[in-house]
């Protein structure tokens, strides 16, 4: 694994951890965010996945 891939994996893990802590409230953020990604398939998400699996 290269350093760039590890960096983006760490960033994604931290964002999901923050969403998990914030999701305790009345609005489940992680599932809402996941639904947005599945429905709209934003270009930034594809670039993020390419940078994570760039090995």
Report the uncertain regions.
none
Number of strands: 0
Distance between the termini: 6 Å
Q: What is the rounded Rg? A: 13 Å
Structural class by SSE content: mainly alpha
H/E series: HHH
Number of helices: 3
> What can be said about the biggest beta sheet?
none
Strand content: under 5%
What does this structure look like?
- The chain has 55 residues and is mainly alpha-helical.
- The protein has one domain (3-52).
- It contains three helices and no strands.
- It has helices at residues 3-22, 29-40, 43-52.
- The model has no long low-confidence stretch (mean pLDDT 86).
- The chain crosses the membrane at residues 6-39.
- Keywords: Membrane, Transmembrane, Transmembrane helix.
- This is Transmembrane protein.
- It comes from Methylomarinum roseum.
Task: Chart the SSEs and their pairings.
Elements: H1 3-22, H2 29-40, H3 43-52
Transmembrane segments: 6-39
Protein name: Transmembrane protein
Keywords: Membrane, Transmembrane, Transmembrane helix
Short description:
Keywords: Membrane, Transmembrane, Transmembrane helix. This protein has helices spanning 3-22, 29-40, 43-52. It is an all-alpha fold and 55 residues long.
Q: Which properties best describe this structure?
A:
55 residues; 0% strand; flat; mainly alpha
């Amino acid at each position: 694994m290269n350093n760039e891939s590890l960096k983006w994996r760490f960033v994604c893990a931290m964002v999901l951890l923050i969403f998990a802590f914030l999701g305790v409230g009345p609005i489940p953020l992680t599932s809402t965010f996941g639904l947005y990604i599945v429905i709209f398939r934003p270009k930034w998400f594809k670039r993020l996945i390419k940078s994570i699996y760039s090995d």
